[in-house]
């Protein structure tokens, strides 16, 4: 057991580092792209990327989860059986994906008219859609490494794809003047190179002697029911872009996308948290000290998360001005508002534990579907009047409601005893501070007030998060978990 926890901890650290580095590439390229593209160009890239995301949600068909499940199910049978599973899923992805890409290309004139004012040729859509297919193919090869407990190989493929895509895109854009087309050719090329490298390295888990169509019904039965959940999450993450593009146009969407890139600083931290804490939490719910850990972690995460958002909101005008040219400076209000989305996404990992504990995962799909509908309603109400700021408010509010509903259901299924008043105060203080900071910036009031608001609110949040005694016990708990012991947090 001890060696298992050591393996999980080591792998989590690698995945966390890899996730941070992969996301950081996109962030550090922001000064380059914003000096090459206008806000309208950047908005066009963002909308075409959003369409690719929808295509990806349809292409995946739950096959990533099916591969994980059946790969381990066939482990005792041997490597040949595992190779048949992996190959069957790859063959399904290629067959199904080719059909979907062709269909999407056929409807691209409608997409072009509705979202791009007929400004793009069909070649843009073909390159983008084929790139989405190869990204799925590349991702499958990387996932096999995760199943083999080879995190560095996984990170090599993911990072290789990101670096190759960026290098080729910048070369085509700057060196050959390919513009938006160069960006998507870069994305496609990077995915093709990483997919070829990944599958060549993992070729022992390929059996191309035949088409393994006999396994398709089995993997589809497992994966297809997961499509609604994937689509609901897609709506939660992208509905704002759809509405901005249709109602406000590409320039507003471009500013919104830049603001979202800066908000990704919070997403990087959240990704690391989710990777590192998941095995600890999943182990804790099997022991008597699980509820105590969750109570402490919920307060600690929310307090530090809200403090981080306040700091990011206060610094957002300076960050945007330093890293982007003048046409993008108006994006700074989006940064702090959208950071709440990432923070609430990470918090859901804590509050959803009761649902996992009682194996009532149907609630995850129900809640996510309901909140996805709420997100659309809020976008309809807010985007026409408030543009990008309205979209950011709609998205972050939807994620807040998602957490509240999840917390209620999870607590009903498995009572943890969360400190609801304390959690509510943390969120209230954080949101109030962010509103006041943006108000001061908007009215150009004395900037020392921003420093005062930030300092006072962060101090209060840290005090509400957890006492030093509880923090010390939390650290002890994690250490004792690795040695197989329990510890009670009062």
Description:
- By secondary structure, this protein is mainly α.
- The protein has 2 domains: 37-225, no CATH class; 248-482, no CATH class.
- 84% of the residues lie in helices and 0% in strands.
- The chain has 19 helices and no strands.
- The chain is globular and about 70 Å long.
- The two termini are 26 Å apart.
What class would the helix/strand composition place it in? mainly alpha
Give the helix tally: 19
- Which spans of ≥5 residues are poorly predicted at pLDDT below 50? 1-5, 485-490
Number of strands: 0
Strand content: under 5%
Overall pLDDT: 87
Distance between the termini: 26 Å
Could you describe the largest sheet, including whether it forms a barrel?
none
The gross shape turns out to be globular
What's the helical proportion of residues?
over 70%
Number of domains: 2
Radius of gyration from the CA trace? 23 Å
Order of helices and strands: HHHHHHHHHHHHHHHHHHH
Secondary-structure topology with pairs:
Blueprint: H1 2-28, H2 30-36, H3 39-60, H4 63-73, H5 79-106, H6 108-115, H7 122-147, H8 151-176, H9 179-201, H10 216-223, H11 227-247, H12 250-284, H13 290-323, H14 332-351, H15 353-357, H16 362-413, H17 420-443, H18 448-465, H19 468-482
Helix pairs in contact: 1-8, 1-12, 3-5, 3-7, 3-11, 3-12, 4-5, 4-7, 4-10, 5-7, 7-8, 7-9, 8-9, 11-12, 11-16, 12-13, 12-14, 12-16, 13-14, 13-17, 13-18, 13-19, 14-16, 17-18
